[in-house]
Design brief:
The chain has one domain (3-104). The chain contains five helices and two strands. The protein is mainly alpha-helical. Strands 1-2 form a two-stranded antiparallel sheet.
Amino acid sequence: MPLLVVLELIWVLESVYGIARAEILDSIKELLLMPILRFEHKPVLQRFTLSAQANRFDLADLLIAHTAKNYGCETVLTSTKRYRSSNSLSLQNDKKTIAEMQAQRTDF
């Protein structure tokens, strides 16, 4: 199952059906255990579900950040209003300061 399908699943369950975060995470964990299903980057999804239990980041943004980290990205820029103060979501302990992020940011 492509990561994009999991991302859309999260969005639909949250936005359309109003399913609680914990239920969504439990469902994804159970799907990951099903041997009949194959997942793109299964370790990324496993790290995502563990990480999501320990914070309140938006699930879709968090999955995108974990996927980006898997490809070597250190920081993900987002337009999510919740993160407006920094415009970024970082999964590293040594994340850049807001001033550094803003200095590197290019507006189009």
